[in-house]
Amino acid sequence: MTLPLRTATRYVTPLREGGSMPAVVEADDEGLYVLKFRGAGQGPKALVAEVIAGGLAKALQLPMPDLALMDLDAELARTEGDPEIQDLIKASAGLNLAMDYLPGAVNFDPVAEQPDADLASRIVWFDAFISNVDRTARNTNLLMWHRRLYLIDHGAALYFHHGWDGDVSGADKAFPLIRDHVLLRGASRLAEIDGGMAAVLTEAKIAGIVADVPDAWLQGPDGFGDPETQRAAYVRYLVRRVAQRDAFVQEAIRARA
What we know:
By secondary structure, this protein is α+β, with helices and mostly antiparallel strands. The chain has 2 domains: about 5-100; about 110-255, no CATH class. About 35% of the residues lie in helices and about 15% in strands. A 5-stranded mixed β-barrel has the order 1-2-3-5-4. A 3-stranded antiparallel sheet has the order 6-7-8, with no helix packed on it. α1 runs antiparallel to α5 (about 205-210) and α3 crosses α4 (about 190-200). It is globular and about 55 Å long.
């Protein structure tokens, strides 16, 4: 996976329902994107999680808006009247993360509809794998667009990497919070889809996804080595988690039961 590089040319509107206040922006390809700011409260680690989780979702053929790296010029802040937005743009000058804007998309309503058992199971497996704490009935991070389900917002995944020193021993752990997953009730095929999901996530595939994380997002005060060292640690962690996946798969099966 190699993410395209776009340049933001116009700030369109904030999306204030997001905790990090993402925005709709126009880019140099004349497309509209949802921009996730590096300077938002969650910091660069949220963007690292977005790139890795998004790449894994694409590899697993889960429905996701396309991702791109987005170069942001601090000069765009001059046209904004809101001081909070001005500060956010200035703090995020340089590389940020963007995803295709899905015009007219609506939030998924778990009461109104549920995906089929195969898709629900694959999404639950994926979220247990990436330790995604943020796909609950209260905050589904799922959109419906043209009657199709789309996964969004993975900045809260891979939560182990906050304050991380590169230790991969935690990769063997279950993910008890899967009990709160909005699609768990319909995920009746977890055992059946497990082998096929794992087979996709080879070490080479994972390394190609992690390689898309920019150096600039790995150079903060909580970095434990140079960017290459950190990327190698992510790869080791994820490869080990695939190998030891029985812990999180069985936890999800028990939680559903």
